[in-house]
Amino acid sequence: MAIKNIQTAHLVHDLKNPINIIESGARSLIDKPDRYGALNAKQEKVIKRMLRNAVRLRHLTNSMLEVDMAALGIVNHTECIPLNFIRDSLIEVFDLVDPTVSDALEDEIDIEKFKSILKAHDVHLEAESASLMTKVTTDETKLSLIITNLLSNAFKYKTKSVFLKLGVDQDSVSVSVRDDGPGIPDNYHQQIFDQYFQCDKVEGFPVRGHGLGLAGAQALADALGGTLSLCRGAKGAEFVVTVKTIKAA
Ligand SMILES: Nc1ncnc2c1ncn2[C@@H]1O[C@H](COP(=O)(O)OP(=O)(O)OP(=O)(O)O)[C@@H](O)[C@H]1O
Ligand SMILES: [Mg+2]
Question: Could you state, in order of their start, the residue ranges of all structural domains in the chain?
């Protein structure tokens, strides 16, 4: 999975500055009408679309570099709370399907209201408030990327609902992502973690993407001293990622 040569890694790295400039320029046009003049509704719509795509590009380049670092065993532990990395993942996935939900999630500080926003969009978050707010030490960027990949698959394949479950204990955090879609046949349970592998097309569920998400997520989980597994016998598909953490004193 590692980027094969240093030029390519640098190229990806050097994309970050122009992307940041596009993103912050678009954000300024939207957020600072006093300075740059008010946008009319049509202009605002176009700039918001540009901003969303600049954010996507930023996430893509970060994700390439994070997976590459993971393959080299480089992790960056920081203190964080699960609410934040789960929120980041949900925002990224909703950005592609309904950015108004992302906006609502971004601003919501009340956990019950946060869950209600999700529930109204058929995402069921099963997590105690105390667990969501527990300080843990992990590489939250990498963990969030894993969850984003699982969620993005769940959104692609769900019939109606997605179920997210958080577990926090002394030295690990686990997140389960389940959907109510067609599931994954038993004979593919190993192969789906291979690069470029995609299951046979299921009627009504177009095959999209490149078959890279789970391979990258697996490399990230490995780097975090964790596991990523597909649960057997689940209705729909259920993946669980568990990573080691250091609990803050
Ligand atoms: N929740 C799911 N339900 C049903 N099939 C799934 C699910 N998640 C993954 N798969 C199967 O596993 C394959 C590999 O998933 P993976 O995330 O690696 O790639 P992708 O989603 O096809 O593309 P990419 O993630 O690169 O955009 C998918 O193509 C799909 O066939
Ligand atoms: Mg995927």
Answer: 1-74, 76-247
Residue for token pair 């890279």: 212
Rounded distance, CA 99 to CA 92, Å? Answer: 9
The residue with tokens 């926003």 is: 117
Compute the distance between CA of residue 167 and CA of residue 128 in angstroms, rounded to an integer.
Answer: 9
In this prediction, residue 40 carries a pLDDT of 96
What predicted TM-score, i.e. pTM, was given to this entire model?
0.86
Residues with CB under 6 A from ligand 1: 149, 153-154, 157, 179, 181-182, 184, 192, 197-199, 207, 209-215, 237
Ligand 1: centre distance to CA 43 (Å): 36
Q: Tokens 């995402």 — which residue?
A: 123
Identity at 94, one-letter amino acid code: F
Asked if residue 35 lies in contact with residue 28, where contact means CB atoms within 8 angstroms, the answer is yes
Task: Give the pLDDT score at 1.
Answer: 46
- Can you read off the two tokens belonging to residue 107? 């601003």
Report, as ranges of residue numbers, the positions in the chain whose pLDDT lies below 50.
1
Q: How far apart are CA 208 and CA 228, in angstroms?
A: 22
* Digit-coded pLDDT (tens) for 32-81: 999 999 999 999 989 998 998 898 899 889 888 888 888 888 898 999 99
DSSP state of 39: P
Ligand 1 centre from 198 Cα, in Å?
Answer: 6
Domain 76-247: which topology?
Heat Shock Protein 90 (3.30.565)
For CA atoms 149, 59, 223, 76, the dihedral sign is: negative
Q: Which bound ligand lies closest to the C-alpha atom of 208?
A: 1
